[in-house]
Amino acid sequence: MKKKIIEINSVEQLMELSGVGGAVGHVSTKEKQTEAFLRQYIRSKIKTIKEEKNKEEEGLRVVIRQMLREAKEVANPHPSTGINMLRDAFRKAKPTIKNQYQQLTTSKEQRDSFVAHLLAAFVRLYDQLDAMNASGSVKEVPIADTTPDVGGGDLKAPTDDDISAIEDEIKGIMEAIGVDIEEDDEEEDDMDIVSDEPKPETQTEKDVAKKKKQDREREDFAAGMEGEMTGRNQAFDTFRLTQSYFSDPYLDLADPDDQKMFKDWCLYNLDLLLSSFEEELQPGLDKPTIDSPEGA
User: Fold this and answer.
1) Which of 257, 221, 256, 267 is nearest to 134 (CA)?
2) To which H or E segment does residue 262 belong?
3) CA-CA distance, 277 to 112, in Å (whole number)?
4) Is the pLDDT of residue 144 over 50?
5) Through-space distance between the first and last CA atoms of the chain, rounded to whole angstroms
6) DSSP at 50
7) How many CB atoms lie within 10 A of CB 97?
8) Mean pLDDT (whole number) for 55-69
9) Does residue 129 carry a pLDDT above 70?
């Protein structure tokens, strides 16, 4: 005889089944069925609760780990001021660099070009900043006198009488040659003025001009380097978005040792950071060997 399977979804259904009357000889069988149903119901509920709890705990662990990492960096500053400022620079720049890099998924050539151009840009940046520091050109430049040079030191502003005399002379000349003068302000306002100034550009013309300027800047950015163009363009945009995060604190450092720590470890960690982004896109690739700036 085939057994009938009854699904229990609530305690009320369970109690209802357990209270169904029957012959005295069947009480023991009914009790066994009720007990089995009860165990099944409890196991199902426990399993559901555990699964929900595990999900909540996993999400909580992720948040806690992130908070601990941030707290550790704040609570354990590095002995070098340069490294502390570099940490802050990477904290600000990392999301932008990662987003820009991981958009390049068509080919690895794009990402290789991105890495080469971005690292080269940072090397040039520190070379330029060091040169500016050495020449002292990064110091504040005094505000120059912008008063126009009109020549001569004896010029005086014209008086009202001078202006009136000039106006009368002009009127006399115009009347002599037969030009009718009308001093109607409203008519003057309605006059169609003709000038040699170009008309305002349309938005399309502005966009084209902007694109041409950007192309020239990108070519200068990649001067002397070869590489895939999309990766180069993305590196150019990334550098412009993040450059100040690194150049501003570097210029604020007055100690040469702090500057050296900042620059050397910036390039080293930037290379490692880009490698880690590649690992996320291509897990299982061999990691490149990169020497520590201090030979550690």
Assistant:
1) 256
2) helix 256-281
3) 12
4) no
5) 78
6) H
7) 22
8) 71
9) yes
Mean pLDDT of 124-151: 63
Among the listed residues 121, 81, 114, 149, the one whose alpha carbon sits nearest the alpha carbon of residue 235 = 114
Q: How far is CA 256 from CA 78, 82, 129, 134, 197, in A?
A: 17, 10, 13, 11, 53
Query: What proportions of the chain, in percent to the nearest 5, are helix, strand and coil?
Result: 70, 0, 30
Is 181 a residue whose pLDDT tops 70?
Answer: no
Indicate the domain borders of the chain.
1-18+31-76, 80-135+210-296
Residues 6+ apart with CB under 8 A from 125: 243, 246, 247
Q: Are 102 and 277 in contact (CB under 8 A)?
A: yes
- Per residue in 21-36, pLDDT (tens digit) is 444 445 567 777 777 8
C-alpha torsion 292→293→295→296, nearest 10: -50
Strand ranges for the chain from DSSP E: none
Residue that the structure tokens 């720049």 belong to? 93
pTM of the model: 0.51
Percent of the chain scored above 70 by pLDDT? 61
Under DSSP, the state recorded for 197 is: S
Distance, CA of 278 to CA of 255 (rounded, Å): 35
